[in-house]
Design brief:
heterodimer; A: alpha/beta; Rossmann fold; 3 domains; 20 helices; 23 strands; globular; B: mainly alpha; 14 helices; binds adenosine-5'-triphosphate; binds iron/sulfur cluster; binds magnesium ion
Amino acid sequence: MTLLTLTGLNVSIADGTDRIHAVRDVGMTIARREIVGLVGESGCGKSTLSRAAVGLRPAGVTVSGSVRLDDTELLDLDHRTLAAEVWGRKVGFIPQNPMGALNPVLRIGHQLTEHMRRHLGIGAREARTRAADALAATGIPAPVAALDKFPHELSGGMRQRVAIAMALACDPALLIADEPTTALDVTIQAQIIDLLVTLCRDRDMAMLLVSHDLPLVLQVADRVDVMYAGRVVERAPSTGLAERRAMPYTAALLDSVPTLSGPQPVRLPAIGGTPPDLRAAPRGCAFAVRCGHADAECATREPTLQPVRGDDHLTACLRPLEAKTPVIGEDETAPETAADRAVPVLRATDLVLEYRVPGRPSFRAVDGVSLELHEGEILGLVGESGCGKSTLGRALTGLIRPAAGTIEHPAGETADVQLIFQDAKGSLNPRRSILDVVAEPLLYAGRGTTRERREEAASLLASVGLDPEVLGRRAPRRLSGGQAQRVAIARALAAKPRVLVCDEPVSALDVSVQAQIINLLMDVRTATSVSILFIAHDLAAVRAASDRVAVMYLGVVCEIGSAEEVLGAPRHPYTKALVASVPGQGGRLRASLSGEPPAPGDPSSGCRFQTRCPEAVPECAITRPPLVDLGPTQAVACHVVAPSRQATGVSPS
Amino acid sequence: MTLASVMRRAARLLLVLGAISIVTFGLLAVMPGDPALALLGPGATDAAVAEVRASLGLDRPLIVRYGDWLLSALGGDLGTSYQTGQPVVTSLADRFPLSIELVLVSQIVALAVAVPVGLWSARRPGGIVDRICSVGGLGLLSLPMFALGSLLVYVFAVTLKWLPATGIPSFGDDPLGHVQGLILPVLSLAGWQFAMYAQILRGEARTVLAEDYIETAVLKGLPTRAILLRHTLKPASLSLASLVPITTGELIGGAVVVETLYALPGVGRLMVDAIAARDLLVLQGAVLAVAVVFVMLNLFADVVVRWLDPRIRSHHAG
Ligand SMILES: Nc1ncnc2c1ncn2[C@@H]1O[C@H](COP(=O)(O)OP(=O)(O)OP(=O)(O)O)[C@@H](O)[C@H]1O
Ligand code: SF4
Ligand code: SF4
Ligand SMILES: [Mg+2]
């Protein structure tokens, strides 16, 4: 039975004197108890559509068409009626960013009960009891105590559970979840998705799951809508879509996602170009300029959604693909890199890094880490947020002085280390032109004349795939996320570093752009033999980029080895759990780790992972397991997997 | 707040007062004009002036006079007025209640109007309330306070004759007259404060309204009133509260102007008169008293900020 029906929905947003046509002629249905996924690159209109689908029309936003929920036309209702009768009551909304989605100055209990009291007409007492039940249903430990807390006292995962409890409080028939797990760590992400799906099944709720993460959506949704430039371009059941996809855009999205299985690709197939400007309606297929499958007609006629393989599989494409035709990307054999020779350029030994907070005991973010970075290699560093990845990266650049341990540059004195951040745009001087931003390190190095520096900067820009003629004079703020990251890389390369530390360089980017940046880093490494420490929480991205991978948990390295070994055949219980939490690993999703990491810096003895480890033995509570070699490249710190009889010289103690 | 932090603040307050007393004492000493001359009038002979100076203790070195003053001040005696011979403490006690009343009432009036106006103009940017608020607010902010005061007097006292132009009976003697006498001064003082509060609140509330948590609250189905008053006002008033150190200064300055303009017997008038008469000890006492109020207000604002922002609260407690 149909719950929500959108017909001919158009949404335009006033932007200065222009109008952005963010959603164009979208029809969609969601049945009761159905989970529908909505995917697409950033800016394709997912969020705009999901708001319009519940009748929300903020100032400047014009919505036309029809939105029917059960038998009510939502676009006929005014804001006040929608607030009183629909929002929070029939439709629950789960926001994207758990950090910003709860009011920081109001207690959890207040935020959970205010709409219950209004919609259900119950008193404060009863609302509180129900709120505690709702929190308990989302798996929050000590729900009653949580009611009296403020949002900042909870972790990101816990806050998202609160937001879910809030959406569920009045038993809505439909949940709208806009990127509910994007900002969370993989293990927590798996828990939250698990929870959402279970709750939908148990409570007969339907859900619109908005995400840019196609593998995740394929895993949990019954049906998937792929959006591009404001339109739905493919609609199909999730099962088998990976093979049956008909629209080249869907195929490209699927291909550019790095995976944890299959052979490690030399290059990721990336989608070139950027989505079109939505100010003017595109002539022809909006994807035509980026499509490897286009022909002349594509540029003149705009395709509409038509059945391709059966009634439930629709696509808006003039030349749909056959099932499983590779569209982009070709096989290559890996060129020999300097990494194969294993010449160390940077060596950390028993590194301890601490933050000092006035009036409190200092906080130990990294507690005895030993690792080597080889010339021309990409070493991936993974782990959940707060495990000390960034701190370690910063220490390697010399920004943080170690409290104990050493950092050496065995290859020479001048082992210059450059740092690249997640927020590339924020790291570029907004008042300089891009050319000057890139030339800046040359100026500090006192190299050449202004003109020569500009020329070198231009060739650096070209080497990271940007056209210096077009972009050179622009201000950094007018760059897209991917372009900004390229500029940051060019600037880092200007200093001719031996080592690049990249701190989450792709986590804010769309998969297609992410693939481009990962490819770029691999190219840069091949061309310059620079060594790269690639810090990320996305295991598949790390696998795609890295030769070797180190896994950190709460300030220690628990496993290290080649990317194939660590992510293909993980040995440490934590690495196993991490790998199992990644969507797309065959079968339905399972949250393989319960609980959250204990407060970092907790000085308890024994193995750091003991509180969450499914394989713990009594020994784990007493002594810390040292890193023990399991083979020529792989080493693991675990009493069960690698008993420490033959402890190596790099034991973290 | 813990006892330790209260003690720390008290100690800081004493330090501030000490510094202020030294600075004002020094400034007053170098200020042109002679209290004795002011007391005797322009025609006084040199001998008479010298005699009065000696009787007031003004012939002693500055440092001795300060030490003397400090010792008695520590005992609660701020000296006596050169002009009237009344103890300074007594005149302060006489004048303070009216000033406090003026300031408090105008604050309440300013906030009571600024909160709804600021919130509403943030909710509908470019709407009618917003436009009136930004144009009117800018006008009020650029209008000197005495100009606004004179305008009000001209309209309501001189032309319409609804309200008295100057002076105010005490509340005990004539409650109605007291209230009537207070209206124009309060409006003059509140106008400027209102404009500033409304502008700040409007800007802050616009930022808050763009936050994700507001959308969450809207899609929970809360009525607009709850969105504005609960979810927007509290975070938005944070910066209002943290601006108190600046606004207090403006407020005190404004009170002096208004009291002078309407001939109200408050501390502001007391200070102005004392300056005219070179009545150093009165001025010194009034400045110190105002400094105490200033510091207290800021302390109060601190408490409010902590109440508004749980993040600060737990940070300091932790
Ligand atoms: N308030 C706004 N003012 C102007 N343009 C806007 C506004 N909100 C969205 N847009 C534009 O509308 C289009 C669709 O945006 P929308 O946020 O719906 O995309 P999205 O698919 O949710 O992207 P993301 O994955 O980044 O969340 C984009 O081009 C965006 O720039
Ligand atoms: S219509 Fe043409 S350009 Fe558009 S996706 Fe299909 S083949 Fe590509
Ligand atoms: S040492 Fe013990 S607790 Fe730690 S990972 Fe191994 S089995 Fe688990
Ligand atoms: Mg979005």
